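INTERNAL AUDIT FORM
Audit reference: QA-55
Scope: verify that the stored structure record matches its stored sequence.
Auditor: D.O.
Record contents follow.
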Amino acid sequence: MNDSIRLGEAPVGLVDLAAVARGRRTIELTDAARRAMRVSEDWVAELSAQMDRGEDTQAIYSINTGFGSLSGRQAFRSSAQARDLSRRLVVSNAAGVGRHLDPEVVRAAMLIRAASLVRGYSAVRPEVVETILRMLERDVVPVVPEYGSLGASGDLIPLAHMALVMSRDESGEAEIDSGEAFFQGQRMSGVAAMAAAGIERLVLGPKEGLALLNGTSFSTAQTALALADAETLLETAEIAAAMSIEALMGFGDAFIPELHEARGHPGQIATAASIRRLLDGSRLIDGGIGRDPERQPPQDAYSLRCVPQVLGPVRDTLAFVRGIVEREINAATDNPLIFADRLPGRSLKAVSGGNFHAEYVAFAADFLSIAVTEIGNIAERRLFRLNDGTLNRGLPDMLVASEHVGMDCGYMLPQYLAAALVSDCKTLAHPDSVDSIPTCSNQEDHVSMANNAGRHARQIVKNIENVVGIEVLMAAQALELRLKERGFGAEALAPASRAVLSMLRATPATDGRPIGHLERDLVLYPRIHKAAELVNSGAVLDAARAALV
């Protein structure tokens, strides 16, 4: 993971993106990328030279004309006007509001913009990409408000806040017009941040302003990071589910491979196999491969029995979303695109289209949100079952063996919290992609709302990380209670459950106190916060995997 990403050599994958966004992995601009960019750059440079020579020059959208409904038909007369146009676009579009986006989102968007520009269709100089890469390397992170993008024409407003920091007015400007950025965690003006990092701010050339702004980078960054976390969350949710099934002495019949092969969905088959591995070796599970169940009827509630049928579709959905996201990370998404060495028979090599329209990303984020909400939906039902003395097969109410029944609430309130979080997700998971509000004098009359969809997907993933963290806490408590009730030692547990339980008990909560077995009420939020961290970081997943080697 310490190797540099060689931009322009191979596509940037989801793992690469997350490493840059979170781990500050370095990036190099390859000679191949510079060569690819030079073709369209030279075409626009020749156009600029024609303008400066006073030759008749055709009007080419965004290079020597206005934007959107203001494009008109009259070409500007000089390359100086075209350069001024680029900077004015950046200034006018920096109009966002709301809380600033997490630095990891901004860093991811910066890499995505760079990956798009090196495709060579955007007519920008290598210096533009090199500036972005130096900002990433030296930890200059523009302050970008969360609201403003419609997901077409790309993420104009958030990208303008990025471009404001890295570019400057050729004739001079006030510091206040340089935007804001974090430099090594300190918030300051764009001018100050770039100076502190030793990076020169650029005078943008013709087309370069729109090339920086007119793309799906922030929508894709939000969705990509949500997906990276969702993939870890899904596998952790399977672990938590297996622990709950074991604590509730569930039936192994529901995970027999023939049952899932009869239906044929790959995600369901994979999740059933995962649950079998996680439960292998447990003395608490009734029935399964080669062993008849002892209790009748051998059926659990759906929240236990149907884990493969619910989390399996989540697996398949996330795989579909990954395909869209990884293609979009590397897509050329500005407008127009310049095909200078192609399109025989045409003198106009600038092609206006709609690659900035982020419907692909909007769908991906919406599908991700729906799928992850279902992880929480079914997990919360297991929490309820663990707490209910009439449903949990003999465990104490609220998973606390109080000396005097009623003195302690135990895990009553964490289930309330999970219910609140899941309910929030049900609202957030309403698809943003079905909405559209026309803009720009009806020129931009259908938009994707992909950035809203990406923001909501990230919040949903964070919510459900808390829900799954609560299940890990409660399932661990329930397993210890079950062992005591049965008179078993820890060796009766499946190795994966035993490893997660051991890791949890060896981990301090955020208040520094141990996450021990709950014998009487205490303040729970430090445990819940830490449990969510263990889910997000992959610590729960790592502990279970180590036990299964």
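Auditor finding: record pair retrieved intact. The mean pLDDT is 96.
Action required: none
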